[in-house]
Amino acid sequence: MNFELNEQQQAIQMAARKFAQEELKPGVIERDQTSTFPLELYHKMGEMGLIGLPYPKEYGGQGLGYLEYALAVEEISKVDASMGISYSVTTSLYGGSVVNSDATEEQKKKFLPEVLSGKVHGAFGLTEPNAGSDAAGCITTAVKDGDEYVLNGMKIFNTNGPLAGYYAIYALTEPEKKAKGLACFIVKAGTPGLKVGKIEDKMGIRAAQVSEIILEDVRVPEENKIAMDGHGFKTAMKTLDAGRIGVAAQGLGIAEGAFEIAIEYLKEREQFGKPLFKNQYLMFKMAELQMEIEAAKYMLYKACCDKDSGKDYSLSAAKAKYLCTDAAMHVTTECVQMLGGNGYMKEYHVERMMRDAKITQIYEGTNEIQKLIVGGSLFR
User: Fold this and answer.
1) Is the pLDDT of residue 68 over 90?
2) Residue 229: which region, alpha, beta or left (left: phi > 0; alpha: psi -120 to 50)?
């Protein structure tokens, strides 16, 4: 058991940290206020090779693993959780839909390189108005018509929806079978009938672009079907397992970012003639938060190692997602308190981090769902 990062992992971590601090941080408050996504910075991340880290080189990736990827998401999310989730959805959920499906080598080489290079975003279309935690409640249909499928329905809460070049859309080819009739299709942006609906006005991750995707008689060729009839549900669940690693890394980064700000504040701010950290209550509180962060971090890294070594990682990913995102919410709330009145002000960043943290407990499987997964494993 080795808890040390190797030289390559440290280099990726430092490159992502430098990019976040120098490129993302200067405009992060303004982007939050205006709900503006920095496309040029996302493309730069692609040029750095960050987007495709965990995928083979033949598909446009870097041929590394999920630990390297999680390290990058963590560093990005310390500064800008909106960029963190946009990055994670493209890599884990869109990319995962392709590699976890029945996709052929030809399909992978067609639908991955442009996305993994960071030239365009990928999006993941599973959630519907009546199908959130219960993904089996999907009602979007795909009807065979010659050598094409005709898709009709609506997907909601699509991160990258307005930005994506490619969408992984889950739809029923055999509606009477419900979840057992689910398939997955790649739909390219600009396909007639595919429309971006309402763009969501959110409490947090405000720079991330999240929208409805409306499908009205969208025709896609049969070769765009990557998960065959009845295989879509399994593909989605396997993809979400990996997606939880990305969200756990986002949550961990948010917690660490707020914690680092609070540490500096407690060292610099003086009250009653001494720095705030000299107050034993505040020092003990920060010690507790640091231990909470550290415990969550190693659960995340274990999930990454399980995945990278080919082990079943569903359970460790669920634990990591739960621990890291609960830590994000708890740590950011405490850090706002640590900064007092300043913590409530936008210029100190922690109030934004607290707003960003909340959604991490909800998307890609609520934390209640993670408890069901972990609890269910105890009584098999």
Assistant:
1) yes
2) beta
Whether CATH 1.20.140.10 fits 236-378: yes
The pair of structure tokens assigned to 337 is 């308190």
For the chain, first and last CA: distance in Å? Answer: 28
Yes or no: is domain 7-116 CATH 3.40.50.1820?
no
Residues 6 or more apart in contact with residue 266 via CB below 8 angstroms: 275, 276, 277, 282, 286, 338
Hey, where are the domains in the chain? 7-116, 122-233, 236-378
Please report, for residues 95, 225, 275, the alpha-carbon distance to residue 215 in angstroms, rounded to integers and kept in the order given.
21, 16, 58
- Please report the pLDDT score of residue 133 as a whole number: 82
Distant-in-sequence, close-in-space partners of 303: CB < 8 Å, separation ≥ 6: 66, 244, 245, 248, 313, 316, 317, 319, 320
What average pLDDT is seen over the chain? 96
- Segment 29-39 shows an average pLDDT of 98
| Cα distance between residue 194 and residue 192, in whole Å | 6
For residue 364, give both structure tokens. 């890609």
DSSP assignment of 22-59 equals IIIGGGHHHHHHHT---HHHHHHHHHTT-TTTTS-GGG
Q: Answer yes or no: is pLDDT of 197 > 90.
A: yes
Catalytic residue (one of 22, 223, 364, 368): 364
Q: How confident is the model at residue 25 (pLDDT cuts 50, 70, 90)?
A: very high
pLDDT in tens, 82-92: 999 999 999 99
| 212-229 residue pLDDT tens | 999 999 999 999 999 999
Residue 211: CB partners within 8 Å, gap ≥ 6? Answer: 158, 161, 162, 196, 197, 198, 199, 200
159 closest CA partner among 63, 92, 225, 70: 92
Rounded to an integer, what distance in angstroms lies between the CA atom of residue 197 and that of residue 69?
31
Coil, strand or helix: which one is 227?
Answer: strand
Q: Determine whether 364 is an active site residue.
A: yes
Superfamily of domain 122-233: Butyryl-CoA Dehydrogenase, subunit A, domain 2 (2.40.110.10)
DSSP class of residue 274 equals: E
- Average of pLDDT values for 23-32? 98
